[in-house]
Structure formats: C-alpha cells, structure tokens
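Re: weekly structure request thread

Next one in the queue (241 aa):
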Amino acid sequence: MSACVNIFSVQKNTGELKTVDFVKKARLEKIIDVKLKLFFSAIKDHNNKYVKAYLNTKENREKKQKQKLKLVNDRNNKGVYGAELEMEIVAQTEAEDVLIDVNSKDRYGYTPIIVAIESGNNEILKFLIENGADVREKHPVFGKLTLHTACYYENEEAVEILLKTAPDLVNEKSGTDGWTPLEDATLKSNTRIVKLLLLYGANPLIKDNNGGTAMDMATEFGKGEIVKLLRDKIKEIRREN
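Done, posted below.
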C-alpha cells in the first residue's frame, strides 16, 4: 500500500502555483519550537557558546552549509546517492541544522532579546543586537519595550547597552500604561539607573496615560534622593527652554 503524502498546490495572488507539504511544515515547526525552548534555556543559563552556535547568523549558515557539503561528499565516497542520500540530508537538517532567527517568538510571545534582558545575560544581549535584534521589542506580559524591561528588572548594564544602541528610547512610552523608562526606574528606587537615564536626556515631566510623571511618583512615594535628581533635571530643562 502506498503512503498518503499530504501535499497540495496552492494558488497565490501572483497566479503561480506553490506546492506545500503540510506534514513537513508541521514537523519543521515542531522542531523549531523545541529548538527555541533549548535556545531560551541556554540564554537563561548563560550557556553562551550554545546560543552563539545556534543563532541564525551568516557565519553559522556558512558553517552548516559546509557540514552539509561534507556529508554529501562523504556519503558519495561510500556509494550513497539519490533518494537515500537526500533522506540523510533531510534528517540531519531537521535534527541539527535549525538555526534560530534573532527575532523569533515562542508560543508565549517571548523573543531572545527580552529573555536576555530578564536573565541578565548582557553578553548575549550585545550579541543579539549586533545581529539585528529589534531593540523596540515588547515584553509579551507587561507590554513594555526593551528599555522599560531593563529598568523594571534593574539590569543596569542592559540599560546602558540599549541607550548606547538607541538613545531615542529614553523617552519612549510603554504601549500599555504610557510609562517612560524613568518611571520604571523610579518605581524600583534605582538611583544609578535614574542617573543614567537622565544623562541620556530622560524628561521627568513626560505624562503617562493617567497624567502622572516620574516626578509625581518620586514625590508621592517619598523617594528623596530621586526627587532631588529629577528636580535638578527639571531646572535644567526649564533653563534651556
């Protein structure tokens, strides 16, 4: 009895026919899901060698291609050709050759850059940014951008990395509550991060969705040292205007 192959031809807007193997597609998606879990676990565990080996970079793509060519040559030398060789290549590709896109999302909406910030893996944070990570990615639970997330988790080094990469993030509002990174840092009473944000031009007078500011928060919760820092910044802003 012949096996039933789940392959269909799909009409595209261009009028061209595209063959889609849904069984293969589902299998590949499952493999990617497993690989993504391992990838995120490696970021959290600071297993940076693994992360760098499986991120989809030009270097890693070239390395995988060389491995595939070596497999072909080795198997050809042993008299393996055609369909049998193709099956071996497919098996190796699916099992080992899946590389993780820098902006991949898991089923919960997490991306590598958010996981790196949360886990304090700043070596990988730099590596991800160097390889095209979206610095405006949002946290899937809080809806906060990367800089807000770094402030919330009090990851001072990550705050500095992000500010150097994208200084204009300093006064960006969160998509959920309209908070600025300065409000997140003020809430956490992290004076060092507050100073860093102010150095990059954070404005204590920007209002969130409820009409509050970082200055209001610092005053309301009695954060004396931060109140002084923000007051000095406000005086500077008013002098310049």
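The longest strand covers residues 7-11. The CA atoms of residues 34 and 106 lie 10 Å apart.
Next request, please.
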